[in-house]
Amino acid sequence: MRAAALAALAVVGCQLDNNGGSATAVSPNQLAAKLQALSQRMHARYLGAHRLIAAVGRSDLDSARLEAHAMSVLEEPDVLPEWRPYFVAVSQAALDIELAPDVGVAGRLVATLGARCLACHTAARAKPKLAPLPHGPTRMLEHQQAAIAMWDGLVISSDEHWLAGADILATAPLAMVARAATPEWPDDVDDVARLRMYAQRAKHVTAPAERTELFGTIMTTCSHCHTALRDR
Predict the structure, then answer these.
(1) Which sequence spans correspond to the domains of the chain?
(2) pTM for this entry
């Protein structure tokens, strides 16, 4: 079931009266309009999540909060009662990111947002169409694309996307300044080595909960590296 089917499932509630009784008349044009509107909001969440990941990864908390706010206020007025908790949970996760005190916390909350999206997709048996996979180990832009590929793999349980992103993060060269300048953390493992270590670990993690936790750790590592470079 793809995104359009999920939209159809969610808006069926518009055909019931307020008491959950007999079906009310809904013209094909009205239903089509509602389906299109819902599909557009789902697409907005998808693209917003990608921009959110990019903002957190580059340690831009202000931009991350703006993207999170835009996601948190999206409403779904026509969903059936049994589907409403999923959308509420996604909105709450976005709100938590908007209120995050620092980019490190925001990074872990991005993973929580992904888990909330996955829960809805799993319940609906939905497989939204994803952005093309990135190709080849190159530099920073591809790191961002790799993180997005891992996110996509997380939210629809796609091993292909998850592993493709992990492989790039594990092997792509980093700028020399990143290698030389990032300060060491208390356990004497620098950000570059830490990122590659987590990316290698990601190749062997399959459980959604483990992937969620690891993705949050990867996001905080990316944001820490960018903060260190920016603040030098």
Answers:
(1) 3-230
(2) 0.80
Which residue is it, tokens 């980019």? Answer: 103
Are the C-beta atoms of residues 224 and 191 closer than 8 Å to each other?
yes
Helical spans, DSSP H, in the chain: 3-11, 28-57, 61-72, 84-98, 103-124, 140-155, 159-171, 176-181, 191-202, 208-230
* 36 and 203 Cβ atoms separated by less than 8 Å: no
The amino acid occupying position 202 is A
pLDDT tens string for the chain (232 positions)? 445 555 455 544 554 444 444 445 567 788 788 878 888 888 899 999 999 999 999 899 999 999 999 999 998 888 888 889 999 999 999 999 999 999 999 999 999 999 999 999 898 887 777 767 766 544 445 788 889 999 999 999 999 999 999 998 888 766 544 444 444 544 444 777 888 899 999 999 999 999 999 999 999 998 888 787 654 4
Q: Which two tokens stand for residue 181?
A: 């300048």
